[in-house]
Amino acid sequence: MIHVDIPAILPIAMILLVLSVGNIMNIGFEKAYLLQTPLNQTSSEIIPTYVYKVGLQQAQYSFAAAIGLFNAVINLFLLWYVNRVAKRLSGNGLW
Questions:
Q1: How far apart (Å, rounded) are the C-alpha atoms in residues 19 and 83?
Q2: Residues 6 or more apart from 27 whose CB is under 8 A from it?
Q3: What residues contact 43, with CB distance under 8 A and at least 6 apart?
Q4: Is the N or the C terminus of the chain less surrounded, counting Cβ atoms within 10 Å?
């Protein structure tokens, strides 16, 4: 039987949690775009496919850049908040 000390694993688990939260908004563009059909397009639209359609197909580059910036700001806020919670719970975080 292997004995694992929980307090030794907690900082590693918290850092892995913070790093994985950074990928929450990063949904696979290719899979979602390739599986879209005219029948399910309204319910399967995600931010990256919407940015692609607005930016490249409709040539609204500034609007697509604003949507991408909004996505990045939300992702940064989530990362900051989870890092703050992890630091309070375990005393360890990314910064």
A1: 9
A2: 46, 47, 48
A3: none
A4: N
Those residues whose C-beta lies under 8 Å from the C-beta of residue 48, and which sit 6 or more positions away, are 27, 29, 32, 33
**E strand or H helix at 84:** helix 61-90
| Separation between Cα atoms, residue 37 and residue 45, nearest integer Å | 10
Output the pTM of the full model.
0.77
Query: pLDDT tens per residue, the chain (95 residues)?
Result: 666 666 778 888 888 888 898 888 888 889 999 999 999 998 989 999 999 999 999 999 999 999 999 999 999 999 999 999 888 888 877 78
